[in-house]
Amino acid sequence: MLRFESVHFTYPGGVEALIDLSLSIEQGERIALVGENGAGKSTLAKHMNGLLKPGRGRVLVNGEDTRRKTVAQLAHIVGYVFQNPDEQLFSNTVQDEVAFGPRNLGFSPQEVEEMVRSALEAVGLQAAASEHPYDLLPAQRKLLGIASVYAMDTPVLVLDEPTMGLDLHGTRMVSSLLADCFSAGKTVILISHDLDFCAEHVERYIIMADGAVQLDAGIDSAFDDPGLLERAGLEPPQLARLARALGIQETPGTVVDFLAMWEKHRRRRSS
Length: 271
Hints:
271 residues, alpha/beta, Rossmann fold, 2 domains, 6-stranded mixed β-sheet, 10 helices, 10 strands, 38% helix
């Protein structure tokens, strides 16, 4: 679905953000794109919908070279939620903000109405439909930014720091929204420093540093190399650290996983 072939990208100021990067992402994958600030994560993600085009190499979306496609054309496939919602909100009402994407993708008025209703319900903003986006609290604007892209119903959804600035209630709403995406078979890519949140939702970790992929692995081996984690500015999720401290060799993603692993570990020790 997404393919990067020896991609290089240098910003006008001379900063090399991506260096000979190759990567494939298939339909339905759940991915965390992680690393410290400046690692190239957001630059990589903006190549997925054509906001940036490679200086060398190719980026293919459904087999099509992004250099031959406009951002508007790629928006049918890849939805991108910015880290800062204020960079993407521009309409006069919350409802119009969410309607803009699906309307411009060619959905019928009836479909747009239903998509707006569903998206606002998913993030708990139904009562704010007639309000101006900038009259909302920062956390609500964050949820609105997510809803405005979710409503487009794209097969790929990229979320840049989706839990930043959210409380537990807001984070649970995002989790529920992601569950709907997974059930629909969508490809979801989380760019996040919140590895505890990622561990609950993803199956594949792409760890970046210095503009390149340093490790591409599942949760069972993503956090085995302390030196790499230090270089990437990462610390394993809390459950992973707790499991290691208790002598559990497997890596849990959720509390349910951890409890099952602990029970198996306890029985093994007592037998």
